[in-house]
Amino acid sequence: MTQAVLPPQIPIAEALKGDPSRRRRENFIRRLFLGAAAVSVLISAAIVLSLVGRAVTFITNVDLGALWTSGWFPRRGLFDIKTIVVGTLIVSLIAMVVAIPLGLGCAVYLSEYARPRVRRLLKPILEILAGIPSVVLGFFAITFISPQIVQRFFSGSSLFNMMAAGIGVGVLVTPLIASISEDAMRAVPASLREAAYGVGARKRTTTVKVVFPAAISGIVASIIVGVSRAIGETMVVAIAAGATGGSIFQLDPSQPGQTMTAAMTSLAIGSDQVKGGEFTFESLFFVGFLLFAITLALNIMSERFVRRVREKY
Fold this sequence. Notes:
- With 313 residues, the protein is mainly α.
- The chain folds into 2 domains: 13-61; 65-309, MetI-like fold (Orthogonal Bundle).
- Helices cover 71% and strands 2% of the residues.
- The protein has helices at residues 12-16, 20-61, 81-113, 116-130, 134-153, 162-186, 190-198, 203-214, 216-232, 235-240, 260-268, 280-309, and strands at 71-73, 78-79, 247-248.
- Strands 2-1-3 form a 3-stranded antiparallel sheet.
- A hairpin with a 4-residue loop joins strand 1 (71-73) and strand 2.
- It is globular.
């Protein structure tokens, strides 16, 4: 009588690893994604290094007195940094004055007051508004915002001015703030709202004192993203602010001004090599490096604040 031959026993550790062909496919996908992440890091590092290299060349070869003059006229050798930095801050501040109340108000309505059917209708429209090309809002700023709003309330203002540009940028940023803030408010557990209603709180009180504080990390993150977007906006400011070739130092928002992004655009447009005085081309990289440093600082501040106040449910 022959004895049956049993198949060899596979170790439990090997059996738990699964099919070898499946493991090879998983390893391939993992390496593919790792390569994509590494390429993105390398591209970012190359961009930063190119900015730093030309920026160092500019700052080490230009007289420091040229960085603090009466205006930004790089083709004349006048690289007044405060002109474009202050212009950027003015436009961004006006944009935030417009975008924060409108964006947060829209987010509160969609999250707490709108009926489900109304929300399903308005939320896609809000997303579409976020995709409007900035050049369209630039022309809207000079054809409607400036003549109908700025010039009507500020006598003596120019058709091209920083206030119109700031309002246009605010309209551009509003859907971004509204969408992110609304998502943060919707993520607040319904049990917190029900608890507030259970002790007799009204809807307004629940929204202001329960939902808003619980979603504050996401709301602040949306505002920081909006500020970064406003600082980096180019076309609206380049079209509506009016300072194409350069700008004198200006604190009046009803007059033409220059921002960092618009300064780079007006200086480099129409040519593969900037024409002008010595180190004019390198000034683009210096301004770009300043813009990168400001945006990086905002993102770091936002990340630290969000980690500090984030609520986990």
